[in-house]
Amino acid sequence: MFKVSARAFPRRSPIFSSKCFASTLTLIETNGSKISPASLSTLNAASKLNQPITCLVLGSDAKKISESEFKNLELSSSNLKISKILYNENSNFDHLLAENISNILTNLINDSKNDITHFFANSSSIGKNIIPRVAALLDVQPISDIINIKDSKTFIRPIYAGNAIATVESSDKLILSTIRSSAFSQISSDSSINNSIVIEELPINDSDITSNNDNKITWVSESLTKSERPDLSSAKVVVSGGRGLKSKENFDKLIDPLAKALNAAVGASRAAVDAGFVDNSLQVGQTGKVIAPDLYFAIGISGAIQHLAGMKDSKTIVAINKLEDEPIYKIADYGLVGDLFEILPELTEKISALKK
């Protein structure tokens, strides 16, 4: 199905192509009554195909979100062509369980009048759950974790924990993909008004939902970590701590004040999470969150390959570690070798003073 070639970290500009009458279906995730930042990045990725985009919004607030949020999208990209928004307010869709919506997506994609050639979702737990199930129903090979788009059939994705980059070409008529949101900037949602988007309710039969899971899957609960700090997945500045901090008390005492001074999100290496310094929701890396903030502080972090896979695309990387031969310094833009227990209090004090 694919032709694959691999090379180490290419820096190439995408080459766009378009197809008459083709359209891209994008699944929109939401945070309360807002479009999630990751979905704004997915829309930007969809715009690279230079073809009409149909957005699918599902859940109790779907109509409200469709009528308010999309009208405020700033069309900062001339290729962003949102032509239609489909919504359904069935509460069974509130958590976007794959078992509940896979049939809906399959029917929508199979409907020839929509002429859908691409289906994009975030590389979130939701997208990673939905795409394989829909791909199995449609007998199509999915392409996961796209970080760049060359044309409508050719995509770039990381392999081997980001140590190599694969260029993947698909011969399928339908492309199902998850998008790594950190690789694409967000479409702004705070400016100009777009009144040309068609908003329609998507008719759905209850049988399409229940027949998909035969009532075997139900949503029980979720537990979210609340913080005054910005969200790690979308923050522009991130301060991460590692095993070098030695204890949870030190982590809280040194990392949190610096993050507060910078109005930054807090992250951590897997070693710090495994040691119980912070909750695993703050883990950055191959088995945690993959982020690309404007500024990333790696404090007491050695730079294991699994951690680098989650933050190496940050615009500016600052490393603080007492050992000068740590791998983190190979990708850092600025490195400070020294005792972090002496450096961080002074750094925090000076940053706080500059803000006064």
TrEMBL record:
This is Probable electron transfer flavoprotein subunit alpha. One of its GO terms (cellular component) is mitochondrial matrix. Heterodimer of an alpha and a beta subunit. Its cofactor is FAD. GO terms for biological process: fatty acid beta-oxidation using acyl-CoA dehydrogenase. Its main location: mitochondrion. The electron transfer flavoprotein serves as a specific electron acceptor for several dehydrogenases, including five acyl-CoA dehydrogenases, glutaryl-CoA and sarcosine dehydrogenase. It transfers the electrons to the main mitochondrial respiratory chain via ETF-ubiquinone oxidoreductase (ETF dehydrogenase). Binds 1 FAD per dimer. FAD binds at residues 243, 269-270, 283-287, 300-307, 321. Residues 24-213 form the Electron transfer flavoprotein alpha/beta-subunit N-terminal domain.
